[in-house]
Every structure is written in structure tokens, then in C-alpha cells.
Amino acid sequence: MTQVLLRNADVVVTMAGHDLSNCDVLFEAGVIRAVGKGLVAAGAHVVEARGCVVTPGLVNTHHHLFQTLTKAVPGGQDALLFGWLQTLYPIWSRFGPDEMRVSTMLGLSELALSGCTTSSDHLYLFPNGARLDDTIWAAGEVGVRFHPTRGSMSIGESAGGLPPDSLVEKEAAILEDCIRVIDAFHDPAPGAMVRVGVAPCSPFSVSRELMRDAAVLARDKGVRLHTHLAENDEDIAYSLEMFGCRPGQYAEDLGWTGSDVWHAHCVKLDAQEIDLFSKSLTGVAHCPCSNCRLGSGIAPVRAMRDAGVRVGLGVDGSASNDMANLMLEARQAMLMQRVAGGADKMSAREALEIATIGGASVLGRDDIGQIAPGKRADIAIWDVSAIESAGSWDVAAMVLAGPSKVRDLFVEGRRVVEAGRMVTIDLDAAAREGRNLVAGLMA
User: Fold this and answer.
1) From 301's CA, which of 48, 99, 110, 440 has a CA 20 to 30 Å away?
2) Is 430 contained in some domain?
């Protein structure tokens, strides 16, 4: 395989030590071979990076990619979590394989253009023949590293749950399909492009038994566990009323803490729960834009980080964020911690760390999130010669000022974005298909 030499980058942000100025990066066969000044590689394909900052690819730890086709839906724009869900469930019930496939392609492309090389996805409803397979196929076309999770809902409205009965599944069928997709797609090897997780949707849409059985299954199969937890005040009230305890205790009782678990949101974790997550090595996907959009609150990220909790960033679904830009998510994370605690509560550098090596840790990946020999060649190249960067003095401007879209993006050494455009798929054609599908849903 041809070597690729990124040459003369103004700065390489390695996340493996100090930033390096006027630096080159050499990679081959999906792996970084060398980082340093004046690298020489006869016959290598040269990519000129002068005027650019190079960073590790960003890592997205929570998304609902199917929601890409339901941005800015009337009736859900100004609602809290439960009301927002009840507005959107009927629309999502009309989805099928095409909607899942196209929404995933569009959502992952949007992420890639924002510098993201690895994304998880939480798909918890499967109407009209849709399967997790549809999203995995789409991710393969886009070319990003993918952590799909087989989500589920089993308690509908008639049984006291939030989702309509038409969107819930039998628990035996859920567990059976989890086994199927793990056996078919999960790759535990270093450099894996697909790793499958098990992800019951939330405490208010599945039973205690399914939560417990899912944890047992995941550990038997050696895959990770993911769900929503402590997202807002409604979530806390539901847990106290239905389970007689806070969400952290509920999670611990059912086997949902540990180094193989990460929870989305965790806006309302208290000090005891933060301590539990720290001691158990449980991870958190922080989704600041979605939390703002739904009025859920400001997650105690400063307290989590200070306690040693592993934290990554998530854009969450596009129905509750309306965009999928991970660099802007890092900026929002920094700003919200400053709103909550003061201007010194999170630096731009820390926000970028959470967006790269932090997310990699939450997903259980020690092969990505850094630019260093032996790590996978997941690399973002940012042009800092344009208007967003005019007047910038420091690499911190990447988060503080921009740019928020990459010039070039490599995943496993393969170029996915070139000169600000997707090169793996025909994005214009995918967008047209998406518009047609949305028109059908609206009709």
C-alpha cells in the first residue's frame, strides 16, 4: 500500500505529548509510521499541509443517526425531552430501510466534514423492516470508523412506557437480534472499522429484566453497553417514582456500571453518582448542544473530570441538535462549563482533548485519538489560512474561533474528505434522496 506523507503542517496537535511545529506525518496501511520534521519517504504520496493544523480525528460517542431526516420538526422544536419524543415517535414509525440508510449516510458525512473519524450510533427502533445492518452498510460507504449499538424499546404506552406500542419489540426477539448483529459484524481486533454494542434505549422504555439480560449478553459476547441516563429532571422523577432510587443506583443494581459501559447525557448526576462512575470506570457521552436545545441543563462535566470519570463528546441525534458538527460541540462544551462555573472551568485545549482521546477512551479504543507511531491513521487537516482563523495567535483558536470544517480527512489512512468535499460518496445525490424521503414523511 502506498505511503502517505503529510508535509510541513504548521502545527500537529498529537494528543500524545507536546504540539509539534513545522511537522510531517507519515502513514501506511492504515497506521501512523512516523511523526517529525523533515521526514523522507521515497515514492510516498505527498499531501501538502502548509498553512494547516493537523489533529487526531474527532470521536463522537453518542448519536441517533436515523434522526438526520427529522431536523427542526414543528411541534418538537420547543418541547422538553418527553414531549419532544412523543411528537417524533409517530414520524419515526413510518421509517424503513431506505430512511435508515440515507439518514446514516448524511449524518456521518456531516460529521466527517467536521473532522470526525469515529462515530457511535444508538439505533433503538426498527419499523417496517429496518435493521441495524442498514446503518452499518451506510457507514461502510462513507468510510468512517463505526460503533453501532443495537438499541431497543420493549415497554410501550399501554404498559406505562413512553413510546407507542407500535415501536416496541418483544424482549426475546431483541436479545436474539443482538446476538445476530454481534456475530455478523463485531470486530474486536485493533484497527477495527466496526464494533457493535448493546444499548437498551432508556429506563423509561425497557424493563429491568431486559436491562439485566442485555448486560449479561454483552459481557458474554465481549461487547460494550450503552444507554441514556439521568438526562433531565423528568428522567430523575421517573426513576424515583418507578424504581425507588436515582438513576445511578438503578444502573449499578442491574450491572450497568464498569469500564465496558458508557451512558449518554448524565446531566443530573449527583456527587454520589459521579463518585460511583469514577470508581467503576464508567464512561459518559456529554452532549451539550442537545442538552441546551431540550432545556435539560448543564452536565457536571467539571466535577466528572476532576473525579476521574472518562468523558467523551456526543452530538446526539439531529432531531435534538439539528446539526452534527463535533468541533462546534467541543466549543459548546467549553462554553457551558464556563457558564456554570467561571471562565477557568474548561480550556479550549481540554475541550479538544475530550473530543479526541477522551472519546476514544469512552469507546474503549486505545488505537485512535492520538497522532503517534503505531496509532491508526485517523487524521484531520484544518486550513487555518481562511477568514475564521484571521488574527488567531494560538492553536486554542481551533475551538475558540474555528475553522469548524476540515480541509482533508483520513480514516484508516484512506481519504474521506478532500478540499472540503466528501470523496467516498456522491453527497449531492444522497442529499437529493434525503429530501425526497423527507417530502414523503411530511406528506
Assistant:
1) 110
2) no
